[in-house]
Amino acid sequence: MAFDLFHYFAEQTRIQKPQLLHQFPSTEQKVLLMELNALALGKLITEWQQNASRVYSELQQQDQLYIQQIARQMTTSTQNKSSLKKADFEHSLKEILSLQLTELKQLDDTGHLGQKGLNELLLGQTNYLSGHADDWVWATNSLTSLIGSKPVETKQVSLDETMKEFNYMVSHADHHDDHQVAEPVVAKVPTWAKILEPAVGLIILGYLYCAYQQIVG
C-alpha cells in the first residue's frame, strides 16, 4: 500500500496545528515539525512491530494516557538531542502523536483497512522516512534500521578556488626572490568543467600540481 504518511502528517500538522512552535521563524518551525513527525511516526511503527494489537486498540480508543506515555518516554530518552526545551518538545510531540492517531483512525474507518491493512500501511513507511532525519531521531524512537540513512553533506572541490590557489603558487614560485607579491591571475573556468565538478576538479587538481612541481623544480 504505497501512501506517504510522513509528508501527509507533516502537511496536516501545518494545516490543523499552526500554533505549534509558532514562536520560531517559519523555516525553523517547519524543520522542527518535520523532525517531530518523524519521531512520532517512527515510534508508532516500532510500537506496532512490538504489539500491533495493542496499538490498534489504542488507535480506536484515542487514549490520551497512552499518547502521554509515549511522548514522555521519548522526551526523557538519553538519545533525545532535540534543540527544543523539554516542555516544548513533550507538548508538541503529544499534539503530533494525537493528530497522527486521529488521522490513522479516519483512514481505517474510511478505507475499512482493519488491523491487517494498517499493518501493511505502517510497515511500509520506513521507505518514506529514510533519509529525512538525523540519527538521534531513529535512536530515540527505536527505529534503528534507519540510522545512517541521511546523506552526509560533503564540501565539493571548487574549481574556481583551485585555479586561484594554483595561480597564487605559480606567481610566488616565479618571484621567490622578490619580496613583492604578484597579484594572482584568475583563469576563467570553462562551463563544461563546472558541470562535471567535483570529479573533473580532482583530475585538474592533479594536473596543476604536476605543472607546479615542474615550475618550482
Describe the structure concisely.
Helix content is 66%, strand content 0%.
Counting DSSP H or I runs of 4 or more residues, the number of helices is: 11
What integer is the average pLDDT?
Answer: 83
Distance between the ends = 66 Å
Q: Can you count the beta strands?
A: 0
Structure class = mainly alpha
What fraction of residues sit in β-strands?
A: under 5%
**Largest sheet, if any?**
none
Q: What is the string of helix and strand elements?
A: HHHHHHHHHHH
Morphology call = elongated
Output the radius of gyration: 27 Å
Q: Helix amount, in percent?
A: 55-70%
Helix and strand layout, with pairings?
Elements: H1 5-16, H2 26-50, H3 52-61, H4 64-75, H5 86-111, H6 114-123, H7 126-129, H8 135-140, H9 159-174, H10 191-195, H11 199-216
Walk me through the structure.
This protein is mainly alpha-helical and 217 residues long. It contains eleven helices and no strands. Helix 2 packs across helix 3, helix 4 packs across helix 5 and helix 9 packs parallel to helix 11. The mean pLDDT is 83.
